Amino acid sequence: MARILIADDSIVVREYIRLILQRAGHQVIAEAANGLDAYQQYQTHQPDVVMMDINMPGMNGIETVKKIISTYPDANIIMISTYGLKHLVFEAINAGARHYITKPIDEERLLDSIQNTL
Question: Residue 94 above 80 pLDDT?
């Protein structure tokens, strides 16, 4: 079981991910709708894994990864991206993200990415 932070500006996506994670026995300890909130939630909860959307208002997912990794170099961050944003995924991986999945989110792929990241 992992303690997980979900960062996505879409409440529908957050609810869907939470449902998958809870069904698999993981604990969603916090959610964030933007990058700054995600960083603050990370500081507060220090989760085992962060599910981070690339496209968020304000501080985007890549900037947030850089900010989290600069303070917490061992952070386990999995990027969530739409298919057309693959170039941004590689930028996020270079910034310190450990893994990525694409939307639409596949349950098995999501759970595998957490397993592989941990």
Answer: yes
Provide the pLDDT for residue 87.
83
Residue 22, both tokens: 């809870």
Contacts of 112 (CB under 8 A, 6+ apart): none
CA distance 44 to 82: 28
Asked whether 79 and 92 are in contact (CB, 8 A), the reply is yes
Domain residue limits, the chain: 3-117
CA-to-CA dists, residue 95 to 70, 73, 86, 115, angstroms: 9, 10, 14, 21
Q: Are 34 and 58 in contact (CB under 8 A)?
A: yes
If you average pLDDT over residues 34-51, what whole number do you get?
Answer: 98
Q: 39, 43, 31: which is closest to 61 by C-alpha?
A: 39
CB 33 within 8 A of CB 15: no
Give the CATH class of 3-117: alpha beta
Residue 65: the pLDDT is: 97
